[in-house]
Design a protein that fits this description.
The complex is a heterodimer.
Chain A (H helix, E strand, L loop, with lengths): L1 E10 L2 E11 L4 E5 L6 H8 L7 E6 L2 E2 L5 H10 E4 L11 H12 L4 H14 L15 H13 L5 E5 L7 H18 L2 E6 L2 H7 L2 E6 L2 E6 L1 H5 L4 H12 L1
Parallel strand pairs in A: 3-8, 3-9, 6-7, 7-8
Antiparallel strand pairs in A: 1-2, 1-4, 4-5, 9-10
Helix pairs in contact in A: 3-4, 3-5, 4-5
Chain B lengths: L6 H26 L4 H40 L6 H39 L2 H7 L4 H40 L3 H6 L1 H4 L2 H27 L4 H40 L1
Helix pairs in contact in B: 1-5, 2-3, 2-5, 3-5, 3-8, 3-9, 5-8, 8-9
Classes of the chains: A alpha/beta, B mainly alpha.
Chain lengths: ~240, ~260
Amino acid sequence: MIRFNNVVKKFGERTVLKGISFKVEQGKIAFILGTSGTGKSVLLKNLVGLLRPTSGEIYIDDKEVSQLTEEEYLPVRKECGMVFQQPALFDSLSIFENIAFGLRRHEKLSEEQIAERVSEALSLVHLKDVSQKKPQEISYGMQKRVSMARTLALRPKILLFDEPTTGLDPVTTQAVNSLIHELSRKLKTTSMVVSHDMACALSIADQVIVLDQGQIVEQGSPQELLKSKVQLVQDFLQEVKEQ
Amino acid sequence: MSAYMPKSILLFLEELGRTMQFAGLVFRTGVANKVPMHLVFEQIWKVFVQSLSTTALAGFFVGGIMTVQFTLQVKQFGALGYLGGLSTSGTFREVGPLLIAFMLSGKVGAYTSAELGTMKVTEQIDAIRCLGANPILELILPRFIGIIVASFFLLFVGLMMSVGGGLLMGIIFSGIQVEEYLRHIPTIVSIPSIFGGLFKCLVFSILIALVCTYMGYSTTGGAKGVGRAVVKTAMITMVGIVLSDWATSMIFDSILTLVMEA
């Protein structure tokens, strides 16, 4: 379970998150929707401790995490797998070593066991025969999936996706969205997806949170969202109809 | 008080404060954790190999230049026998460490800040943190130690090459014999001057390591940000090397005077 309680994040004089409160239940998929620059990625980064809230609390499974030190946060991050907007693969390492990176640091596994976990993670994202390649030798869409595999290899309880389909073609976008759905259901993880994609949110989310200028303007199930009177939600829905 | 200060000075002090905080973080991380030595050795080797050819070449010609410059003076006093000692002493005390510092700053400093800056803007550093690892321990410390340790190896190579270059130029331009050139090196190149050179080398390498890792690690703003980080690294290290050279010379000379008086 993830809970934000009145979270405020300021960068100097600029307030990016203005008192955000919501809850995502265990095993559910929550989509955070909003236009660019409304603080969606900042919200995720606050959850994993890459940024710290100016005020307010963040709970993961009833444990308050926003006050933890960097050292104390390390095991929390192992439980929260984050897939970044960019693939963020380590370009000096092979795909295998990229996926094994977290395993080598957290688990006492033999080389055979690491190889097994890497292959398991790659099969979860429907990739094979790429483990010896370098990130720059595979397509951008494949890099995104390797990035997911790297996160999944640590078997996190929470999956966070920061605009996972940005820069992808429509076919790959569809494949990545299906993958998020499949992974969250199969691994029974709590998932949060930052996205612009209302169509995808309506089809796979359990809960949708709409952000505008650092505030939540609407939240609820996809069915509830369809009845929303908020202008921004209407605009998003209009876009879906036009597609 | 800040209301009376020009903005540029305030910004400089702010940046200096952040750099010092970063240095403290690197130091604390190094003390509290087991530093991954395989990564440190990898970095020492990388820095050494990256700068070896240019350091050797520059060392050779600097030795040659020192010899050519001193030849005119020593010939006037009929003291050609001291040519090797004077030229080598100057290189050990001043030119050698300075040369290594400029080489490291131009090649390794710029490379490291660009490498770390790119990792930062492509979210690789955030990814390391999200995988539950500490980027200071995994990325910064190995590079920090690597630059410092490799600079001593490079100093040694540069100095040996400068002796070789000086000797060759001495033979060509002054007609001095090999034995004559080498004879006064041990008497003029004293232990304090060797320590002086080593001390300068340490100060310069810490400065370069700190500036390039900090600039890379704090990069923001995409490709432009990486470019800015590299330019700032080059600028700050060059100015910093010259200023710290002056400061270390003053400090070391004062210590030496005190020791000799005692």
